[in-house]
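Entry 12.
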Amino acid sequence: MESNLSNALLLLLIGMSTVFVILFIIVMGGNFLIRLVNKVDLDVHEVPFTKIKTEILSPSSEAAIHAVVNVLTQGKGKVENIEKI
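Predicted 3D structure (C-alpha cells):
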C-alpha cells in the first residue's frame, strides 16, 4: 500500500514538473520571439486617412428627405447630415 502511494506521488511530482518546465520554455520562447520581431525595422508607408465619398446623393433625393423631415416634425426639424447605413 505504501509503495503505491509513493509511486503515485512520484508520478504526480514528475508530471507537474514536466508541465511547468514546458510552460516555462513556451513563455521564454514567446518573449524571445517578441523581442526579436520588435527589433526588426520595416519601412511602413502610412497612407493618410481620406474619406472617399463613393455615393453621391442626388439633389432630388436630398430635397425629398428635407421635405419628409419638414412634414414629420411640422417645420421644427433640421437635417444636418445624411448618411447611408
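Annotation: Residues 2-39 form the longest helix (38 residues). Residues 2-42+56-72 form one domain.
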